[in-house]
Structures are given as structure tokens and as C-alpha cells.
Amino acid sequence: MGKKSRVKTQKSGTGATATVSPKEILNLTSELLQKCSSPAPGPGKEWEEYTQIRALVEKIRKKQKGLSVTFDGKREDYFPDLMKWASENGASVEGFEMVNFKEEGFGLRATRDIKAEELFLWVPRKLLMTVESAKNSVLGPLYSQDRILQAMGNIALAFHLLCERASPNSFWQPYIQTLPSEYDTPLYFEEEEVRCLQSTQAIHDVFSQYKNTARQYAYFYKVIQITTGYNLEDDRCECVALQDFQAGDQIYIFYGTRSNAEFVIHSGFFFDNNSHDRVKIKLGVSKSDRLYAMKAEVLARAGIPTSSVFALHFTEPPISAQLLAFLRVFCMTEEELKEHLLGDSAIDRIFTLGNSEFPVSWDNEVKLWTFLEDRASLLLKTYKTTIEEDKIVLKNPDLSVRATMAIKLRLGEKEILEKAVKSAAVNREYYRKHMEERAPLPRYEESDLGLLEGGVGDSRLPLVLRKLEEEAGVQESLSLTETVSKAKAAENGLVNGENVIPNGTKEESSDTRSEAKERL
């Protein structure tokens, strides 16, 4: 494709690589594999483990410096080759162009007006690097023998990319030449930039991602040393415009309702004013609760486990129907539980658990909003900086892009929690007033029958409660009074888990259309 002669394998650098023996690297990767295969560290030890793993990774990177396949020039130099290759193989290349949008990086800019719902971009399957194409490549023999490679498509694709990158005659070289040399995901952060993520909910995923990636590298390094010897009808990937674009506009696509933590960890950027942003909150009914069995049964009938991970949302209301239903059951009295378990109207009451218009009782609403207010306040106390302090730091013109992203993430989490506290306080007082005035409760018989799926029956569950926001998690179960009494323990990390900082780890020394748009 015109520039294949510009592919080169680095062998220079500091010259150190020439004296590094394969055995030395193998010993380091063996040590790394052992370290990454150890059990999860105890509370407060995550940062220590991360730095130990990182030190080993940096040793390996230093010794392997100069061995990577690189391309002369800048990635944008290869864009014409990419477009020519794509066009020759059936992909669409009209109506847009690749442009550097500076802070947002490279993206697509419309060169003509594009109408909403217009199909403007498509890529045939033969241009896609897939697990199937990996199996049919030089990677095939290894893939057929290694069970882990077969079970992990992402690893197979990573190997596929590395193999094709090393081949000057690769069919995908026009595409590979345009890939970035590094990314802004936490895997590429400097240690001090990762430190900015401490206390955020994302930090556990960052540690886990780094450890898992290092373990996978170490395992497959040893394996390689030992074993060397979409539109189905048109068979293509398509992109349809979700809104009108004018010529000159940057083109965005919708990747789904991702939180900013997911954007940072997996995509390497922070999306300001993300209406889908949220903060995880782990809740569970304690098995020592005198009413545990009854609460568990009511929750089961609503399709909700007794322990799960929910979310506090950026938008109003801050809680979903699932979380509202859980909190109502969590705060129920014995008599209220019986009403949801016994009698002809019990199943109908289950259907309204997630409907904010039909409280269980005024007292129940006061309790649940008080609980949520205390829990969100408790989580706010676990951060090492305040909202005001983060805003001041963000004004520093010398702050790196990655550090800025990390601080924006933790600031966003705190702002969501602060909103939840204020919203809960308003609701608490609203329902307290109704309770004091002895206002009549709305009758559950008046509930929206649209909550029912296919009719009424004991085997049917409310559609709105059917799917949880997150996978169930294991966490500390708190009673209503325990939440308040443990507020003082927040500084020592006794929240949302055992003796551990819930949304991070201790340091070693102690709009509708614009929603969740991403760069194409």
C-alpha cells in the first residue's frame, strides 16, 4: 500500500537490549506471573500490590525497549492509505474526513450535510479483525492448542494485532499504521497520575485491569517461548446518524449508557455533563436482621437479590425503580412485610414497589430517604479531597491530561453523591410533612397497569424491577441504625465493605442527543 518500506523493527535505543538474555526476561515474567496470581491483598494493601506489580512491569519494559515494530512519520501520514484501502475493499469513504480535533483527538468531520437516521458509514466484515480471522492467521496453531486463548477473545485479538503488525505484507497494514502508539486509559498512566484516582470508585477496576493484563502478558510470554515451532445480510458493520450533522460538524456515535468511570477505564477520556454518569452503591439486608427471611421473600418476588450493587445517578431522580424498591423493603416493618406476602392484594403491592407514586407508608418513605441521605453522606467522607479542593487543582495549567481526567472523575463522583444527599433530604422532609399531616396514602389499586407484564399472576414479576442495574456483589450489610452509627468510622474506611476504603484505597503512608457521545 505504498509505505510498507517504512515499517521497521527497533533494535537500538540504549543498546541494553543487545545484552539481555532470554532467560533474564523469562525469570522476570515468571516472577510477574507469580505476583499477579496471588490472592487479592488485604484491606488497604491494594496500592502496595499495584506498585510492586508496576515495578516488575517497568523492569521488563526497560529491558525490551527498542524491540517494538514502529512506523516512520505520524499516524495521520497514513490516513490517505487507509481511505484508499477501505474504498478498494467496499467500505464507505464519502461524506466525512478524518480531522484532529485537538483536545478530543482524531475524529470524523462531515463534508456534507447528513440527516438523522441516514446510513453514512459501513465497513465490510473482511476488513474487520475478528476472532475468526485470528484463527485463520499465523496464530491459528497456537489458538487451537491453548484453552485460555480460546476462552478470551480479547487476548486472541491482541495477539492477532501484534502478529499482523509485525508482518510487512499484512492485509490490515493500512489500518494498523494509523493506530495510536499509546492511549490515555489508566493502563498507560504514570504512577502519580494513577494516584489521582485514589478514593474514586474506579480505582479498584484500575488495579484489577492492570493486574489482569500483567498476568495475561506473563502467562502468554512463557507460552510463546515454549510453543514457538453487525448487518448479517450485507455482512458489514454499519453506522447510522442519530442526529442531523451539518457540513463541518464533528461526527459522534452513541456507545451506550456508560458512566464516566467506564469511559476513563476503557476509552481513556472523560465526558463532561454525561447524563448517564452514576456512582455505585453496595447494599444488602443483613442476615442477622430479625426480619431477614420476610424481606428476602418480598425481594425475591420482585426479582431483586438481598445483596446487590445499585447506582446513584447524575440525573433526577437519583435512584432507579430497582433501588427504590429495595430501600422500601429494607425499611419495612413486620406488618408492612406481611401485607406484601399475605392476602389477595399481596401480589399487587409487589407491582408498585418501584413506583414512586405509591409509597408503602409515609413512615417507610421517611426511613428510606433518611437511610439514603446518611449512606451517601458516609461515602462522601471517604474521599481525601473536597469538591472545592478538586476544582482548585483543576485550574492548574500544568496539570497533565491524564491527571485532569482522574481528578474530574473523582470530582464527578462527589458531585453525584452530594446531589443524592440533597435530593434525599428534600424527599425526607416532604414525606415527613405528609406523615405529620396524616395525609391519605394513594391507593395501590390505582397504579399503572403498564407495570405488569402480560397480566397478573403469582409467577409474574414487575417489568420495571426485572433487570438489575449491576451484577450482584458481596458487601457489608448495614441496618438502618448501623448506617448512622458508622458515620464516624468513615475516616478509617469502615463503609461499603469491611475494614477498607470503599471507593478506593489508602495511600502507602496511612441533554438527549448529546448524551454519552464519543469520538468515532
TrEMBL record:
<keyword id="KW-0009">Actin-binding</keyword>
<comment type="similarity">
    <text>Belongs to the class V-like SAM-binding methyltransferase superfamily. SETD3 actin-histidine methyltransferase family.</text>
</comment>
<dbReference type="InterPro" id="IPR046341">
    <property type="entry name" value="SET_dom_sf"/>
</dbReference>
<keyword id="KW-0489">Methyltransferase</keyword>
<keyword id="KW-0808">Transferase</keyword>
<dbReference type="GO" id="GO:0018064">
    <property type="term" value="F:protein-L-histidine N-tele-methyltransferase activity"/>
</dbReference>
<comment type="function">
    <text>Protein-histidine N-methyltransferase that specifically mediates 3-methylhistidine (tele-methylhistidine) methylation of actin at 'His-73'. Histidine methylation of actin is required for smooth muscle contraction of the laboring uterus during delivery. Does not have protein-lysine N-methyltransferase activity and probably only catalyzes histidine methylation of actin.</text>
</comment>
<dbReference type="Pfam" id="PF00856">
    <property type="entry name" value="SET"/>
</dbReference>
<dbReference type="InterPro" id="IPR050600">
    <property type="entry name" value="SETD3_SETD6_MTase"/>
</dbReference>
<feature type="region of interest" description="Disordered">
    <location>
        <begin position="1"/>
        <end position="22"/>
    </location>
</feature>
<dbReference type="GO" id="GO:0005737">
    <property type="term" value="C:cytoplasm"/>
</dbReference>
<dbReference type="GO" id="GO:0016279">
    <property type="term" value="F:protein-lysine N-methyltransferase activity"/>
</dbReference>
<feature type="compositionally biased region" description="Basic and acidic residues">
    <location>
        <begin position="505"/>
        <end position="520"/>
    </location>
</feature>
<dbReference type="InterPro" id="IPR044428">
    <property type="entry name" value="SETD3_SET"/>
</dbReference>
<keyword id="KW-0949">S-adenosyl-L-methionine</keyword>
<dbReference type="InterPro" id="IPR036464">
    <property type="entry name" value="Rubisco_LSMT_subst-bd_sf"/>
</dbReference>
<comment type="subunit">
    <text>Interacts with MYOD1.</text>
</comment>
<dbReference type="GO" id="GO:0032259">
    <property type="term" value="P:methylation"/>
</dbReference>
<protein>
    <recommendedName>
        <fullName>protein-histidine N-methyltransferase</fullName>
        <ecNumber>2.1.1.85</ecNumber>
    </recommendedName>
</protein>
<dbReference type="InterPro" id="IPR015353">
    <property type="entry name" value="Rubisco_LSMT_subst-bd"/>
</dbReference>
<dbReference type="InterPro" id="IPR001214">
    <property type="entry name" value="SET_dom"/>
</dbReference>
<feature type="compositionally biased region" description="Polar residues">
    <location>
        <begin position="10"/>
        <end position="20"/>
    </location>
</feature>
<dbReference type="GO" id="GO:0003779">
    <property type="term" value="F:actin binding"/>
</dbReference>
<feature type="region of interest" description="Disordered">
    <location>
        <begin position="488"/>
        <end position="520"/>
    </location>
</feature>
<feature type="domain" description="SET">
    <location>
        <begin position="94"/>
        <end position="256"/>
    </location>
</feature>
<keyword id="KW-0963">Cytoplasm</keyword>
<dbReference type="InterPro" id="IPR025785">
    <property type="entry name" value="SETD3"/>
</dbReference>
<dbReference type="Pfam" id="PF09273">
    <property type="entry name" value="Rubis-subs-bind"/>
</dbReference>
